[in-house]
Amino acid sequence: MQAQGKDRSNPFVNVVRLLAAGTAGGVLTAAIALPAVGGVGLTAKSTTESLSLRPEQLDEPPLPERTEIFDSEGKQIAQFYYQNRESVKIEQIAPVMLTAIISIEDFRFYEHGAIDIEGTARALAKNVTGGGVVQGGSSITQQYVKLVQFNKAKTKKEAMAAIAPTVSRKLDELRYAMAIEAKYTKNQILEKYLNISYFGAGAYGIQAAAKRFFGKPAAKLDLSEAATLAGAVQNPVRTDPTLGKTARDQLINRRNTVLDRMAELKKITVAEAAAAKKEKLGFKGTQIPGGCEESKFPYFCLYVKHEILTNPEFGATPDDREKLLQRGGLRVKTTLDPKMQKAAEQAIAKRVSTKDKPVAAQAMVVPGTGEIKAMAASRKFGDNKKKNETLINLAADGKHGGGVGFQQGSTAKAFTLAAALENGWKIDDGNSTGASYDIPTNALSPFRDCKGNRVGETHQVRNSSEGGGGFKTLRTGTEGSVNTFFMKLEEAVGLCKVVKVAEKLGIKRADGGKLQEVPTFTLGVNEMDPVTVSNAFAVFAARGEYCRPMAITEIRDRNGKVTSSKPKCKQVMDEKVADAVNEVMSGVFTRGTMTEVGGIGRDAAGKTGTTDGYTAAWFAGYTPNLASAVSVGDPRGAFEHDLTNVTIGGQYYNYVYGATISGRIWKDSMIQALKGVEAPSFTPYDRDRFGGCSKSCAPKPPKKDKDRDRDRGDGPWGNPDDDGPLDIWDTGEDNGGPITPGR
Q: Where is the composition biased (Acidic residues) (predicted)?
């Protein structure tokens, strides 16, 4: 009897009895009594706080949801997440899963309110005898409240406070739970609980857990699987199956406990429980790849990632944009075309090995929309240097994860050609060019930058094969890529004019720096990336319409709201000027530096580009419906590691020109990418406006040399560099140095 007397004098026993009474007055009295309990490791913030058990609205921030990236056909290509979670409706969860979680966590869930009086009373009694909080007794609603508080914590201190073993926290939990019970139905609460819970192995929410553990959606879970996941919730770290045999054994024990409880509650038969216990754990460990490292198309993925992280349209601050990407639950549809991507990858792999130090990179862009259809590179994406991997987006600029790029080389001559046509030059206008061009010093230089300053260089520009040169026109000078011709053309047109044309086409340095406005601008001294160059050439194909490079077409947020991205385009060049550019650069395939490589069986135009000293090699070309640029260079340092006497893709090269590798990759990839696609023609150029010559026409050949010239078969007056088809010795490519047959 003395023992009974002691129990009655213990204030904690009174709390238990009051809670067990189940009346509103009993709960309130219990709250008053709780702070008086001493020596059990429980505290309250204040007596005043404990007196209020009125519902209090809980702030429920959206759960962190993974963002998924899809190609243009709707196939997932990447995902990003802070927590691997994919929220689902309760109808998308197997009924047996709902039964299992209720049976083990809160079997009277549908019968009680915010607090399960019986469960709480048992827990409080257990905690007194245990000298602290040793049993929870929380309802599913209370657990949901605790997880919300824990998830929204911004600091470690806040996170620990959300799970602290204090009476004050439990009182707060009760207040919030009362409001939650009034706000939602029981099924809504259960749905929210299953979506917020952590199940171990990096899986947040029942859908991610079902896929991670068993490789199937939550709707298809069977009895054994449902019991396993229900058992994991209690201590997901201790039962994480990725941690080894001990953790797996503990998870099996928890599964069996759940099965026994379900049988005890007559939710399943004893025989069903026994059969389920005999099943193996069945953990598949389905991978949950995240980030671009795990993407099949890492370079395109990286471009999309940085587009979101750097574009103010996706958030006011970098932190806002990072959170949106990692937690926003976006469904991002992109412009990536699987067929074109495959074409680029295969063409590159055919000629450049993943083990080569020089790298090839390519981008494909749609004229008139700016949609990036493919982005590929010869190296694998990753941080394993022994495997020659790279984390640099070799096809893009620094803003989109790229590096400093490679000098553009003679592909930049296209801008000087366009500038001349804009200034009223005709296709057969030209100048007489020599074998070299000496750039004057600043004081004497005829070149002025866009600030009006004279700019010069201590540099002699030479031709690689034109010898003594001769008279070149816009057509023949472009087809032969004659360096000295373009230096004189830039001098005549004006350096600033050429720079302004390039800028109108979207040309900018890969590193984000200011363009170098120097005399050799026309020879491509600025470092570029394939996306920028291909998009600039797409302007010619689109008859002068510039479109911002575009990788994202649609974003669906977690609430199903769809935001479509439309092309951002503007007319930057007279249509007829672009037509004339297309007419001239079409000849590069038939009479110029791509003659040996050949065309692609449809209207196409383009420009080769080999840099001074063979530090990089390019080809940029286009049809009316697709533009592409291919670069080849050594990212270790183009000047220290040039493209002379190198082995690439198992083949040795004395010199690598624009047509040597880049041009062939371009041809192979474009043929495959456009297979089955209509083949429109370029708009014929305006012959009245651009035909013939007016400024500086070629001199008429002496009559006495006419027969001799015809016998030579080259040019109208015997100069093999003046007109007609170029042979392998007359490629004119590009900026100095000897030329070898077949390059």
A: 720-733
* DSSP conformation class of 662: I
CA distance 114 to 636: 64
pLDDT computed for residue 15 by the predictor? 43
Best CA proximity match to 673, nearest among 345, 378, 344? 344
Q: What's the Rg (C-alpha) of the chain?
A: 36
Domain span at 252: 85-278
Identify the H or E element spanning 178. Answer: helix 167-183
Question: What integer pLDDT is reported at residue 697 of this predicted model?
Answer: 83
Total domain count, the chain: 1
C-alpha span between 560 and 563 (Å, rounded): 10
pLDDT on residue 53: 74
Spatial contact of 360 and 352, defined as CB atoms under 8 Å apart: yes
Taking CA atoms, 623 is separated from 365, 442, 533, in Å, by 11, 40, 15
Q: Mean of the per-residue pLDDT values for the chain?
A: 86
CB of 407 closer than 8 Å to CB of 526: yes
Does 474 map to a domain? no
Confidence band for 37, pLDDT divided at 50, 70 and 90: very low
Q: What pLDDT is attached to residue 389? A: 93
Q: What is the 3-state secondary structure (H, E, C) of 272-287?
A: HHHHHHHCCCCCCCCC
CATH, residue 149? 1.10.3810.10
Helix orientation angle between 11-21 and 24-33, rounded to the nearest 10 degrees: 160
pLDDT at 741: 28
Domain presence at residue 110: yes
527-528 and 359-365: which strand pairing? Answer: unpaired
For residue 558, the tally of other CB atoms under 10 A from its CB is 15
Joined together, the tokens standing for residue 505 give 């086409």
Asked whether residue 231 is domain-assigned, the answer is yes
What distance in Å separates the CA atoms of residue 734 and residue 743, rounded to the nearest whole number? 11
pLDDT bucket at 274, cuts 50 / 70 / 90:
very high
Asked whether residue 164 is assigned to any structural domain, the reply reads yes
CA distance 370 to 536: 10
pTM: 0.80
State pLDDT tens for residues 137-146.
589 999 999 9
The whole-angstrom separation of Cα 432 and Cα 487 is: 11
620, 663 in Cβ contact below 8 A? no
